[in-house]
Amino acid sequence: MSIDDVHPGISRAHIDGPDGVRVPITRVALTATSGRFGDEPNDPVELYTTSGPHGDPDVEIDLARGIAAVRETWVRDRGDVVEVGSARPYAAGPAAGTRQSPAGPATAGPGEGRPILRAAPGRNVTQLHYARRGETTPEMAYVAAREGVEPETVRAAIASGRAILPNNVNHLESEPMVIGRDFVTKVNANIGTSAVTSSIEEEVDKLVWACRWGADNVMDLSTGAHIHPTREWLIRNSPVPIGTVPIYQALEKVGNQPEELTFELFRDTVVEQAEQGVDYMTIHAGVRLPYVPMAANRVTGIVSRGGSIMAAWCLAHHRESFLYERFDELCEIFAAYDVAFSLGDGMRPGSVADANDEAQFAELDTLGELTRRAWEHDVQVMVEGPGHVPLDKVVENVTRQQQVCDGAPFYTLGPLVTDIAPGYDHITSGIGAAVIGMAGTAMLCYVTPKEHLGLPGRDDVKQGLITYRIAAHAADVAKGHPGAQRRDDALSKARFEFRWEDQFNLSLDPDTARAMHDESLPAPAAKTAHFCSMCGPGFCSMRISQDVREYAAERGLDEVEALHVGMEEKAEEFRRLGGRLYVET
Amino acid sequence: MSIDDVHPGISRAHIDGPDGVRVPITRVALTATSGRFGDEPNDPVELYTTSGPHGDPDVEIDLARGIAAVRETWVRDRGDVVEVGSARPYAAGPAAGTRQSPAGPATAGPGEGRPILRAAPGRNVTQLHYARRGETTPEMAYVAAREGVEPETVRAAIASGRAILPNNVNHLESEPMVIGRDFVTKVNANIGTSAVTSSIEEEVDKLVWACRWGADNVMDLSTGAHIHPTREWLIRNSPVPIGTVPIYQALEKVGNQPEELTFELFRDTVVEQAEQGVDYMTIHAGVRLPYVPMAANRVTGIVSRGGSIMAAWCLAHHRESFLYERFDELCEIFAAYDVAFSLGDGMRPGSVADANDEAQFAELDTLGELTRRAWEHDVQVMVEGPGHVPLDKVVENVTRQQQVCDGAPFYTLGPLVTDIAPGYDHITSGIGAAVIGMAGTAMLCYVTPKEHLGLPGRDDVKQGLITYRIAAHAADVAKGHPGAQRRDDALSKARFEFRWEDQFNLSLDPDTARAMHDESLPAPAAKTAHFCSMCGPGFCSMRISQDVREYAAERGLDEVEALHVGMEEKAEEFRRLGGRLYVET
User: Fold this and answer.
1) Could you tell me the pLDDT band of residue A220, with boundaries at 50, 70 and 90?
2) Which of A123, A304, A370, B494 is most exposed, with the fewest beta carbons within 10 Å of its own?
C-alpha cells in the first residue's frame, strides 16, 4: 500500500532531467485559501522522497526478486566495467550463511545468478574519478535534479571531496543521492540482525519502512548467522545506498576471536560485500596501536564495536593495525566497485565524560591522513563522528573535523548531549544532531529510543527517523538551505487558515498528526472547523490575528501604523468586525 | 503508590538545613562494582525532586483536603501578613464556577474556609523585598539547600533580580524553588481544562503526574467552565508553584468578548487568583497598541491567546492597553501577596518565518521597561520568550532578553526550531530548549506531542516532561553547572560495568528503560549479564574496553603508552587475557 492510498492529497510525481533522469518526488496538493482568509490557490509543495519504488503506487514489488536496476544502463554505457562472475548461491558464500528467505528456506532469494561487475583492468569507476576528469555523470545529473541545483555544482563538490555520491556498480537498484554540507542534510538509519534477535524478513521490512520515513541511507549492521543472505535481500530491495561494517562479518568468520583476524580474511570480506553492492563501508583504520591505551582511563573505554575489535587485535599482536598499514590495498578494491569509505571513529566517546578527549582527537588526525590517502586513489570518503558529547562541545567536533579532513563530509552519530535518558536517546541525540547539522555535518546517523537497551523494532525505527528528519530539517532551515523553509511556511499558512488536511499532509508524519487531532475532535466537520480543541469554539487567537489583518487591509498599513496617534473613532469599525467573529461559531 | 515501591534502590530522603528546613530529595542507592571491573562501593546519587509529598511513601494524601501547608510558620512568623477573610465556597466565587469535585458534586472541595492572607497595611511581603533588605528568609535557605549553594548566593541573586522565588503567601503548600540562570535549569508544565475537553479530576491527576516526572512549576491554563474550582483543587494539592494567565478567566467573565474587558474586572480577577495562591501570573502588558499592526503581515499573526485578546481590545477601543497603562496598580497587588510577574510575550512568533521580527522585539523592549517598573515595587519578575525560532536565531533571543531586561530570568516556550512536525513538537521544541537553556534561559516551558493538535493527556504530559528534563539537564551539563554531570557519570559507569538496575534507576524514566531492555531480554538473569541484546553474548565492546584497562593496569600506563615501540613478545599475555573473555559467555 503506497502513501497516497492513505492520504488523498499526497501523491508520487517525478522530475524529468537530462540523460533520461527521472527523479521521484512526493507532491502535496493543497486546497485553496478561502473565506475570511482570502481567495487564492496554494501551489503544491514538492518534497524530496526516499521511498523509491516502494512508495510508487504504479510499481508492483516482489521482495523475493528485488526492485528494478534503475542505474544499469548508466553504469554499463560507460564501458569501464566487466562481469567477473555471477552471484553465488547464499549457502556456498564465504559467509557460510544458511540460505533463508522471508518466505522460508525453500524459496530462492533475490539476486541469485546476477552478474557481478567491477572495473575493467586499469580503470577506476568512482564518481570522484569521473568528477575530477570533468565528467558530469547521469548520476550527478540525477542528484542535481533531486537537490534543485546545477549538475556542475554537484560535480565540483564531488571533485573537491566535499561531497560523495555512494554508488557501488553492483547496487544498480539505488537512486543516486549526495552527501555533502552544501546539500540537503541527510539521515542514515541503522538496522540489522543480532545473535539474539531478528530475522531476515523483519530486516527487509525495516528497510522498506525506514525508506518510507525518510532514511537517505541504511546501514546493515547484522551480526550472528545469515549475514550474507540478509545483506543480499536488503541490497536487492533498497532504493537507498547501503552501508556496512565489514569487520563484523570478518569477526564471525573467525569465531568471534578478534586476535584471529587477518588482513587477507578482512580483504576477502570486503570484496564479498563489494560484489553484493555495498555502497560504503565503515573502516576503523584510525584505531592505531598507540591510541589504544589512551582509552584506559575513560569512563566508558571504547564503545565502538569495530574500534574495540581492532583495539583487541592490536593489543593481542602488539602490532600496528592491519587496516591502517594496508589501507592502500583497500583503496584499490574500493576504486574497482566505487565503494566509499566511511572512516570509522573507533575511539568515539561513549559518555559525555569522555568527549573531545585525547583518544578521540588523535584518531581524528589519522582519519584526516587516511582521507588524503583515499583521495590519491580517487576513492570517495566520508568521516564518522561521535557519539556522546555535551552540548557546549558539539560544534568543535565538526569544525575540527572539517579542518583536519580537508572538508570531507562529516557523518555523525547524534551526538547524545546527556547520558541520563536511556529509552529516550532519539531525543538526547536529536538535540546534538540538529546543532552539529547546523554547523556543517552532512549526514546524521539516527539513534532510536532503544539505543543502549536493545535492537530497534519497527516503531523504534520510525521514531528515530522522524526525530532525525526534524534535526536535519532544522539544520537546513538554520543554514538557509534554498527551499528548506518553504515547507514550514506552507504548513504554517495552512495552520493559520485552519486548512487541517493540508497541515497534516505537509507534516513529517501525517498519520500521527491526524490521529492526535482526532483524539479530541474526531468528527469530520472538525477538519474544516475554524477552531481546535485547545481553545474551543468560543475564542481563537488565530482568528483575532485575522481580524488584525483584515483591519489593516481595509485601511492600508500606513494608516494602521499611525495607530498610536490614537483616533478613537476608528475603533468603531473594528468593533463591528470583532462582532462578526463570534457569530461564526 | 510512591516511586520506591516500584523501584527498589530509589527512595525518598531529606536534606536538613537551617530554620527547620527539610528538603526532600530522591536517593538512588547503587550496587558495588565487582568482578572484572574491580571491587569498590558506589556512592548513592542524590537527585533534586519535585514530587513533594506525592512522592513520599510516609505521607497519606487526601486530594479532597489538599497537602500540608509546609510554609505556614515561616510566612506567619514574619508578622507582616494579615487575614483578610476566608476562602469563598466555590459556587459563590466570582468565577461563578459550579462546585465540582473529583469525587462528585456533593463533596466539599479542598481549601474551603481557609484563611486568606495578604500583606499588612504598608508592608511588602515579596522575597525580593526581603532580599534587598539583606534578609535571608527560610525560603531562601530552603532553596540554597536544594541547589547545593550558600543561602547568601540565593539572596544576592534574588536581590539583583537575576532570580525569582515564586512564593504566594496563600500557597503555603509549595516547596520553595528558585528560577535563575545561575541555578539548575527549571521546567514548567502547562495543564488545564478547555471548553471542549477535560475535568477537574483529570487535571489534578495531571498535576500530580507532572510533579512526579519533574515539573518544577505548573501553569493552569484552564478555560471554559469551572476555572475557579479547578485552580483551587490544583493549588491545594501542588508542591510546586502554580502559574496562571488571568486574562483567560477575565475573558470568560465577559462572555468571550475581548472588547468588553475592563481594567477593573481584570484587577478583580487577579485579586481572586492571588487570594487562591497563584504564585506567578502571565501578564501581556507588552502588547501595546502601536505594535499590533506589526503582526498584520506575519505568516501566523498573533498566536498567543493572551496577546490576541489584548490586541483585539486595543483595536476595538483604539486605545493603549490597560495592562500597560495601569501596570503599577498590578504591581501593588502583586507585592501584597508575593505574586511574581511572568511578563507574557503576546507577540511571540508562531512560525519560523515570523521569528525575531519587529513585532517581537518591539514588545521585548517594553518588557524590559516593565521589568524595571515592577522592580521599583520590589515585585519579582521573569520574562517569557518564544515560540517558533529557527536554530540559527535561537541564541539571539536570550542574549537580547538578558540585555534588554537587565538580567531578569528568561522563561521560554521551546522554541520550536521547525514547523513541519505536528505530533512531535516536544522534539522540535526540545532542540531549541536545550540550546536556549545553554545560552542562559532559566526556565523552559514544556511543549507536548499534542501541541497544535489537542490538549495533552497523561502520556503527553510525561513525554513533554521527559523531553524537557533532557533539554534542561543538557543545558546544565553544557553550562558546567556544579554537580550536573555527576548523574551522567554515575549512569555511564554503571552502563560500562553492566550494572543494569543501577543504570535504570539513574535514568530519567526507569520504567521505560527497564521495559525496553526486557523486550529483548526478559529473563531476570539478563539484568546481571555482562552483555546485552545489541551484540549478544559472543562479543561485546565494553568487555574489550575492560581488557584494555586490565592490560594497562597489569603493566602500568607508562609502559603501555610506549606500546608503539612495538615489542611483539608483550602481546602473549594479552592473548591469554582475551581468551578469558569468551570463556565467560
Assistant:
1) very high
2) A123
